[in-house]
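tokens incoming
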């Protein structure tokens, strides 16, 4: 019985030791020194710190809200006195001179604040413009984007979407103001929409 008890204890100790190694417990080396004079024994311990990568990007509103930057064209009928068409009208008299109407676009309301941060290597932001819902309207290059602050827009206009960089572990901020140029008088009547996708990346 005594031998059996001792054997069971030795088995339990062996299993516990194996469990420590298998479970990923910290393991140090073991040495000894002996003799005369100065003797030494060394043990090395390796340290490991894991920092996961994170990247953040905000363009405009927070959370899942998607901002819309909108413009509206205004037409003016030339005549002795230029006439602005009513929003809804039919068979309405107008003193038209026979010249082509003039078309202007309103200024888009507001600008978008942008934030970016990463602890990976230096970050980048790229942009891509999706296909428009219809043809006959403004071109991507007609939309220019001016930057205030340190975080530049990736391209001076949406026809030249490129890449812009920002430093690691520093919040980069900027304000992107969109402006519409081009020749509104050449665009067909329609409501034109598309989406710009900005992608932040850290390697």
């Amino acid at each position: 019985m005594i031998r059996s008890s001792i054997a069971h204890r030795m088995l339990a100790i062996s299993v516990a030791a194996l469990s420590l190694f298998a479970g990923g417990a910290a393991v140090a080396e073991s040495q000894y020194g002996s003799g005369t004079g100065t003797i030494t024994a060394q043990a090395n311990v390796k340290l490991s710190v894991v920092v996961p990568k994170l990247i953040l990007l905000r363009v405009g509103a927070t959370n899942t809200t998607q901002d819309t930057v909108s413009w509206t064209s205004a037409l003016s009928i030339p005549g002795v006195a230029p006439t602005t068409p009513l929003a809804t009208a039919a068979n309405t008299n107008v003193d038209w001179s026979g010249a082509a109407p003039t078309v202007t676009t309103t200024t888009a309301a507001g600008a978008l604040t942008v934030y970016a941060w990463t602890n990976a290597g230096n970050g980048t932001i790229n942009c891509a413009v999706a296909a428009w819902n219809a043809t006959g309207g403004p071109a991507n290059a007609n939309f220019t984007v001016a930057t205030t602050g340190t975080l530049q827009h990736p391209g001076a206009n949406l026809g030249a979407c490129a890449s812009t960089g920002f430093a690691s572990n520093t919040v980069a901020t900027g304000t992107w103001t969109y402006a519409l140029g081009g020749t509104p008088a050449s665009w067909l009547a329609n409501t034109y929409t598309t989406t710009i996708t900005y992608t932040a990346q850290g390697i």
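note: The radius of gyration is 35 Å.
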